[in-house]
């Protein structure tokens, strides 16, 4: 998901536990490797179904000598498909990024491949998996025997999908000696390595259409990660190597265009962009309205046109104090204006239940987690490192989006109308202002309603490879966006 300002105070540091009876399937000059049991496997044609549920397979690639992937089969979450979990080991094994992979319920041998990441920076994709779009959701009614319940709206109804905990320090990901990743551009290199090793190792997915998706700070992550894939593809073409078949990027309630963030928050609180009756007091709305011009001008001048870390930080602090403080003090859920904040700072009781479930020894054993420390939904340590580098403000992320569009990558920007944190108004504004070759065509297009089962789901607008969509009555975390995703993957309009 998720979540930018509400970060839990736990960082997952640990040492990698030794793995016995390791299945070795690393690339070697002969193209063949021993599996440690006297049997040889040609890793260029290794099939995921050949993996063991008892031990990790260790996969490497000569182009990424500092990386390896450990992966095992598991019975976690969805009994109807093959499920795998594991780690991407980075920098000679000093950093370890955890992932889940679920094959498609529809046609795993033909369906596209998707990646999902949550935001923060510093929040685990386990939250998206177990609260929103994963094959199962955390059981909040104690009706199941294993702590989760079936999700008929899971995105693996249509695609093979993996959930990645990144950067290091997030969720079950960890570092051996305190190593860190502190910028999105740095994190992009690890994500590209993981994707490359995955597609080049498991032949059944090689060349499949690939889609990168996520939410919240994913609006910063995904354009940069996808750009790294595109740029590395160009190098691969020049060198005669296979490329990653990146088709699209999907960003939900993303924090992409920070220059429009506060304009949107004002409209959500003081206008009718979310609810029919504005939720904020008139006197506070007046103060916010008076501060808004100075806020937007400061962000544009010091964070956009010419980045200055000190002046940009001052502009952001002014905007937060004058525009955002009132809502934070209201007790409302910052991810859904129709609700009050309950539970911890993340405002959902599900977060505590997910943590309790993932901390169970039986769950950790099932997943193959090697950390001795507890799971954390979000890491404030990771968040502080990114803030210290002004990661969100120093590089206008919408420029990456424009670059992707110009290189034939489709982009879907969608947002629930009840979100305040990364609201739909803000996203609409930066998309409207986006400078790319299709800008005029997009401006000429009319808004139209899109429906699911004869009911209005929201409004949408598209031109060329760019589509924007709202989801009526949804907040930051969306549980039923499957129809939208199915239509997008099919290449049609919403």
From TrEMBL:
Keywords: Carboxypeptidase, Glycoprotein, Hydrolase, Protease, Signal
MF terms in GO: serine-type carboxypeptidase activity
Cleavable signal peptide: 1-17
Its EC number(s): 3.4.16.-
GO biological process: proteolysis
An example Gene Ontology CC term for this record: fungal-type vacuole
Pfam family, one: Peptidase_S10
PROSITE patterns, A to Z: CARBOXYPEPT_SER_SER
Presence of keyword Glycoprotein: yes
Family of this protein: Belongs to the peptidase S10 family.
Protein name, per record: Carboxypeptidase
Organism: Gloeophyllum trabeum (strain ATCC 11539 / FP-39264 / Madison 617) (Brown rot fungus)
Higher taxonomy: Eukaryota, Fungi, Dikarya, Basidiomycota, Agaricomycotina
């Amino acid at each position: 998901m998720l979540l930018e300002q509400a970060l839990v105070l736990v960082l997952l540091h640990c040492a990698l536990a030794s793995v016995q009876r390791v299945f070795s399937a690393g690339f070697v000059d002969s193209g063949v490797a021993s599996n440690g049991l006297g049997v040889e496997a040609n890793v260029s044609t290794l099939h995921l179904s050949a993996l063991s549920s008892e031990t990790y397979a260790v996969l490497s690639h000569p182009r990424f000598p500092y990386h390896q992937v450990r992966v095992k089969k598991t019975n976690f979450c969805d009994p109807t498909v093959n499920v795998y979990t594991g780690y991407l080991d980075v920098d000679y094994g000093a950093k370890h990024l955890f992932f889940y992979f679920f094959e498609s319920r529809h046609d795993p041998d033909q369906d596209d491949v998707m990646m999902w990441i949550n935001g923060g920076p510093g929040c685990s994709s386990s939250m998206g998996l177990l609260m929103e779009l994963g094959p199962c959701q955390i059981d909040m009614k104690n009706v199941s025997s294993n702590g989760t319940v079936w999700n008929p709206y899971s995105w693996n109804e249509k695609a093979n999908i993996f959930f990645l905990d990144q950067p290091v320090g997030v969720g079950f990901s960890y570092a051996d000696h305190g190593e860190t990743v502190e910028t999105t551009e740095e994190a992009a290199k690890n994500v590209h390595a993981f994707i490359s090793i995955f597609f080049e190792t498991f032949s059944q997915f090689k060349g499949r259409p690939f889609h990168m998706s996520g939410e919240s700070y994913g609006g910063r992550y995904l354009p940069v990660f996808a750009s790294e894939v595109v740029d590395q593809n160009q190098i691969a073409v020049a060198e005669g190597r296979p490329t990653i078949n990146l088709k699209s990027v999907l960003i939900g309630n993303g924090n992409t265009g920070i220059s429009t963030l506060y304009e949107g928050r004002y409209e959500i609180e003081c206008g009718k962009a979310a609810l029919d009756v504005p939720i904020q007091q008139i006197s506070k709305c007046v103060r916010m309205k008076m501060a808004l011009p100075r806020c937007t001008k400061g962000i544009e001048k010091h964070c956009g046109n010419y980045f200055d870390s000190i002046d940009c930080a001052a502009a952001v602090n002014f905007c937060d104090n004058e525009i955002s403080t009132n809502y934070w003090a209201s007790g409302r859920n910052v991810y859904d204006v129709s609700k009050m904040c309950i539970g911890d700072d993340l405002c959902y009781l599900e977060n505590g239940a997910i943590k309790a479930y993932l901390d169970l020894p039986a769950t950790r054993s099932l997943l193959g987690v090697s950390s001795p420390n507890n799971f954390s939904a979000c890491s404030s340590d990771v968040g502080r490192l990114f803030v210290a580098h002004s990661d969100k403000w120093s590089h206008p992320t919408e420029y990456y989006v424009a670059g992707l569009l110009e290189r034939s990558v489709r982009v879907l920007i969608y947002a629930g109308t009840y979100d305040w944190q990364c609201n739909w108004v803000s996203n609409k504004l930066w998309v409207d202002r986006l400078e790319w070759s299709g800008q005029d065509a997009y401006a000429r297009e009319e808004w139209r309603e899109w429906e699911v089962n004869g009911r209005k789901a929201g409004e949408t607008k598209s031109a060329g490879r760019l589509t924007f969509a709202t989801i009526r009555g949804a907040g930051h975390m969306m549980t039923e966006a499957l129809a939208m995703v199915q239509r997008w993957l099919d290449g049609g309009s919403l």
